[in-house]
Amino acid sequence: MYPISLRTTVVASLTQLHRSGTLRRIFDGWRMAGARMEHAEYLTMAAVEDHHWWYGGMRAIAAAMLAEVYPAASRLQILDAGCGTGGNIGLLQRYGQTIGIDIAPDAISFAANRLAGRLARSSVLQLPFADQSFDLVTSFEVLYHRGVPSEATALAEAYRVLRPGGRLLIRLPAFEVLRGNHDRAVHGRRRYTAAEVHAFLTATGFTVERSSYVNSLLLPLPLVQRIGERLLPAVEQSDSDLALPPPLLNEFLRWPMAAEAAWIAHGGRFPVGLSVLCRARRIH
Fold this sequence. Notes:
The chain is an alpha/beta fold.
């Protein structure tokens, strides 16, 4: 316990800072810095997601898991819950009519170029749709965000809007040890193991059909990067993790992701990876 005199001094100092408006200016500065950082990440995302090896690879892996249960042109009603700047819309539209929602104004603004008229600004914690409206709900790197404090609430909403027999395809960052500067840049709250994701899904009422860690073959690269960030915390990363690499490197990095997609398509799975991907079903 601190001495009373010290506590009194601290309280008096904070009171003075509050009255002078200094605390408000400090907090406003933090919020503005966060908003600028988030805007920069969305700007980068919108610019590179059609060409970046990571986005293309993740779409191919998601497509492999969807193709196991849905033929093309299935005429599904699809919700991309947390659509970001809309990079997955082209993939999802192969299977039916797609609607996107996101809470971030920047995301909605960029996604409007891809999905005009079928977007809503909304939280995954309170979806603006009637019960049993969709055959498929997707959620890619959404529930780990600081703006989603309750996975259970978000999953319950996804379950509510799915029709009986409908499916949820969810992807989340894996393993807390892999937390890095990018997680902080995009306000990531936590990372997950496959067992934790399974537990959340089954507690909501879903039946897990298929899951695997993904972005596995290249795992040593981000692992080395994360170790470097911890050993040299004073060295700031000048570029976003989303920055488009040089063309030859970008093409080279596509191949391991394509190999993962092919392995998933043949029923394979990976024991570790940078992300965890699950396909779950609402039975009743």
